[in-house]
Amino acid sequence: MAYSKIAATPDGSSSYYLPRLIGLRRAMELYFTNRVLSAREAQEWGLVTRVVPDADLAKEAQALARELAQGPTKAFGGAKRLFHQSTWESLETQMELEAQAMAASGRTDDFRAGVTAFANKQTPTFRGR
Predict the structure, then answer these.
(1) Nearest partner of 35 among 10, 61, 4, 1, judged by Cα
(2) Alpha helices in the chain (DSSP H)
(3) What is the pLDDT of residues 52-98, one digit of tens each?
């Protein structure tokens, strides 16, 4: 984090998000010690979801970007919104938001394409509609 090396407190929302991601004790440890995590530690702590060799980074990032771009982007957006909302909503409210989002998803061309492809044991083609 490096903030304590210059006698500064955390900023950039790190004091908000970091404890939620890795826990209060680990966040405080990183601030107080300025320790640099290894890639494996970052994965174990939940800061990153996967680790690849340096030589494979560009290839892996491009493959993931391609996979996501070909996916159901409207559904991805709805899911992202739901996951973020779940951090402050009650269970009952979150379930209502999920039901509303599912109903909205069901009215998309991508949903119809996905269900049809699933029923026909084919790979769907999503168009973001």
Answers:
(1) 1
(2) 14-22, 24-33, 39-44, 57-69, 73-85, 91-105, 109-119
(3) 999 999 999 999 999 999 999 999 999 999 999 998 999 999 999 99
Q: Could you give phi then psi for residue 42, rounded to 5 degrees?
A: -60, -40
Question: How many other CB atoms sit within 10 Å of the CB of residue 95?
Answer: 11
The closest of 67, 70, 86 to 78, measured between CA atoms, is 86
CA 1 to chain centroid, in Å, comes to 21
Specify whether the CB–CB gap between 82 and 98 falls below 8 A. yes
Q: What predicted TM-score, i.e. pTM, was given to this entire model?
A: 0.76
- Chain position carrying tokens 């494979």: 56
